[in-house]
Design goal:
Layout lengths: L1 H11 L6 E2 L11 E2 L6 E2 L5 E2 L3 H8 L16 E5 L4 E4 L3 H9 L4 E2 L4 E7 L2 E6 L4 E5 L2 E3 L3 H7 L5 H8 L4 E10 L17 E7 L8 E7 L1 H6 L5 H16 L8 E11 L9 E3 L4 E3 L9 H16 L2
Parallel strand pairs: 1-7, 11-17
Antiparallel strand pairs: 2-3, 4-6, 5-6, 8-9, 9-10, 12-14, 12-15, 13-14, 16-17
Length: 308
């Protein structure tokens, strides 16, 4: 979200933008996965919007931006007006894919080192190919990865990124072709192993009833190197214990481990900068560690460049 927001804002201001993405697709922790169960959100299921400008982007048309606002375009929907809770539609990664639009992006391109010369920033990828030079560079990646990438060329910024303690999270999805009976208070259930339960009913888009289990922070820490089968088995048993009933065998199951799920600077700053060299470090972890913070950080990074 931080990198895409920065790219969109720069493009709207007439800047030439090039995005490099390590993964095969966009989304980060707003990712989703195709499966036998249908599309399943792997990370953030929803997000809050409290910032007036962020809400304006979600709800209202902005002439200068050259893009439809998100709700009008059908990219988001409000799921709880009282809590100002939103979600991407029809799934989380559809939002980031729509936001990225036709911005030039190199996927499966891991930038392993960066260096600054008199001509600007050079990016060195996993194939030893050099990209650049670029006059302005926005690094929008998890704090531990930013700390490594910036270690040699921007040690002070790297040290700030290294101060962020990112926490892991295991996610386990269980699919049932024949729907199972669930209690009404499902979202309130938790134990030492499970922090959240997300239920998706069987439908045309979801061939199976799906239960997504988000492991607790403590369990995820203790089992960070667990094998996928172990995570599925243990958390399924923990879910069974919560329901206090015997579950039928699952028809499909998979898991995803987020090494860097949550975390933020002790004092939110929104953005880390070395403006003399045109280097800006953005991410949700620069704020409060949520989607809104990522949007704020990416917007602020772009505006620093626009108003140089």
């Amino acid at each position: 979200m931080a990198g895409i927001t920065a790219a969109r804002t720069l493009m709207a201001a007439g800047q030439t933008v090039q995005v490099f993405e390590k993964s095969r697709g966009s989304g980060g922790r707003l990712a989703s996965k195709r499966s036998e169960m249908g599309r399943v959100n792997l990370g953030a299921q929803s997000f809050k919007a409290k910032d007036a400008l962020f809400i304006e982007e979600l709800q209202q048309w902005q002439q200068w931006q050259q893009w439809q606002q998100w709700q009008q375009a059908g990219w988001v929907e409000q799921v709880n007006p009282e809590q100002s809770l939103w979600k991407g539609t029809p799934y989380s990664s559809a939002l980031t894919r729509n936001l990225l639009g036709n911005i030039e992006t190199q996927f499966s391109c891991e930038i392993r080192t960066i260096s600054h010369t008199n001509n600007g920033w050079l990016l060195h990828d996993q194939h030893a190919q050099v990209r650049g030079p670029f006059q302005q560079l926005i690094v929008a990646i998890p704090a531990p990865q930013a700390a490594v990438l910036l270690h040699d060329c921007a040690p002070e910024l790297a040290a700030q990124a290294a101060s962020v303690e990112m926490q892991p999270a295991w996610m386990v999805a269980l699919g049932f072709k024949e729907p199972i009976s669930l209690p009404n208070n499902l979202r309130q259930l938790e134990n030492s192993s499970i922090a959240e339960i997300i239920h998706t009913e069987k439908s045309a888009e979801h061939p199976m009833q799906t239960i997504m289990l988000r492991a607790s922070l403590e369990w995820s820490r203790q089992h960070i190197e667990a094998e996928p089968e172990q995570a599925i088995s243990t958390l399924t048993q923990a879910f069974t214990d919560l329901l206090q009933t015997l579950l039928p065998p699952t028809d499909s199951a998979f898991t995803h481990r987020w090494r860097y799920a949550t975390g933020a600077l002790p004092t939110p700053t929104i953005l880390l900068t070395d403006s003399q060299r045109g280097l800006y470090i953005a991410g949700d972890w620069c704020g409060k560690g949520d989607v809104e913070s990522a949007w704020q950080s990416g917007t602020q990074a772009a505006k620093k460049i626009i108003y140089l």
